[in-house]
Amino acid sequence: MFENENYLTVPYFILRNKSLKLGERLVLCEIIGLARQNGYCYAGNKYIAEKLGVSERLVSESVTKLKKLGFVKAKNTHTKIRQLIPDYKKLESTQNSYDMNADFVVDERKKRSTTTTKSA
To answer: For residues 83 and 41, is the Cβ–Cβ distance under 8 A?
Structure first.
C-alpha cells in the first residue's frame, strides 16, 4: 500500500519531550533519519524544510535549539558543508527520564481514579 513512501520515525521519548516544540521534535527525527547511513546529516535547512513541509526559519530555529540542548552537534567541513551529528548518548539519557515520567503520569492517574472511586 505505501511501499513507495518514505517514513519519519518518531520515538516515544522524543514525542514526549516537553522541552521541545512539535516542530523541533520533527526536525530532530528528520536529522536522525538522515544521519543513519553516515552518522551525520549534511542536508541544509531548505531541504529539511521541504521534506517536512515547514518553513526554513522553523528548521533554523529548531537546529539552534537542538544544538543548545546538546541533542545535535554541528561540524563545518573544509567544503563549508554543515554536518549535523545526533548525540545519541544525550538522547539515550533523556529516553530513560522521559519513560519514567510517562510511567509516573500513568501511576498518578490510577491513584486519582482509585481515590475518586473510594470517595464516591
So the answer is: yes
Q: In this structure, are residues 103 and 48 in contact, taking their beta carbons and an 8 Å threshold?
A: no
* Confidence tier at 53 by pLDDT (50, 70, 90): very high
Residue carrying the nine cell digits 539515550: 92
Q: Which amino acid is at 52?
A: L
Phi then psi for residue 76, to 5 deg, are: -95, 130
Q: Residue 57 has which C-alpha cell?
A: 526559519
What does 10-69 look like in DSSP terms, one character per residue?
--HHHHT-TTS-HHHHHHHHHHHHHHTTTSSB---HHHHHHHHT--HHHHHHHHHHHHHH
Q: What angle do CA 29, 31, 58 make, to 5 degrees?
A: 85
Q: Which helix (H) or strand (E) holds 86?
A: strand 82-86
Q: What is the pLDDT of residues 5-18, one digit of tens each?
A: 678 888 888 988 88
Distance CA 10, CA 2 (A): 18
Considering only CA atoms, give the Rg of the chain: 18
